[in-house]
Specification:
Layout (H helix, E strand, L loop, with lengths): L3 H9 L5 E5 L2 E6 L1 E7 L8 E4 L5 H8 L4 E2 L10 E4 L6 H15 L2 H23 L4
Antiparallel strand pairs: 1-2, 2-3, 3-4, 4-6, 5-6
C-alpha cells in the first residue's frame, strides 16, 4: 500500500494546511512546515518526519526503534521520523500528525481545531443516544 494518500488526507483535514514540494517531497504547512513525506533517497524506505512535542522523539525512538527514528537535518530540533514501510497503526499516525500541527499552528487555528473536535464528539454522543444534532 502506498501510504502517501492517507498521510495527505490526515494532514489536509487540519485547518488551513497547504501542501507543496519541499526538497522534492510532499510537505504540509500551516504557516511553516509540520510534516514532510520522506522518500527522497528512493531506497525503498518510506517515512515521514514531523514536529514533535519536547521529549517525544527520544522516548519513542528508545521504546520502538523499528517504528521511530531521529530524522536527518531536523532531528536535532526534536522532530520525529516515523517509518511507513512497516505495519503502522493509522490512529497513531493521525495522533502524530495532530501533535505536529499543534507544535507550529497559530493559537487561533488550535482553537478552531479544538472546536471541530468538540463538535465531532458532540455529534457522536447525539448519534449514540438517538438524538439528532
Amino acid at each position: 500500500m502506498n501510504p502517501l494518500p492517507e498521510l495527505r488526507r490526515l494532514c489536509l483535514a487540519l485547518p488551513e494546511v497547504t501542501e507543496r514540494l519541499s526538497h522534492g517531497e510532499p510537505t504540509w504547512f500551516v504557516k511553516k512546515s509540520f510534516v514532510m513525506y520522506a522518500d527522497h533517497h528512493h531506497d525503498e524506505r518510506v517515512a515521514f518526519w514531523c514536529a514533535a512535542p519536547f521529549g517525544a522523539q527520544a522516548a519513542l525512538v528508545d521504546a520502538q526503534p523499528t517504528t521511530y527514528f531521529k530524522p536527518p537535518y531536523v532531528g536535532a530540533r526534536g522532530w520525529l521520523g516515523v517509518w511507513l514501510d512497516v505495519p503502522v497503526d493509522w490512529q497513531d499516525i493521525a495522533a502524530h500528525v495532530e501533535d505536529a500541527y499543534r507544535q507550529v499552528a497559530p493559537k487561533r487555528l488550535l482553537l478552531e481545531l479544538d472546536a471541530q473536535a468538540l463538535r465531532s464528539t458532540s455529534s457522536e454522543v447525539n448519534l449514540e443516544s438517538g438524538l439528532l444534532s
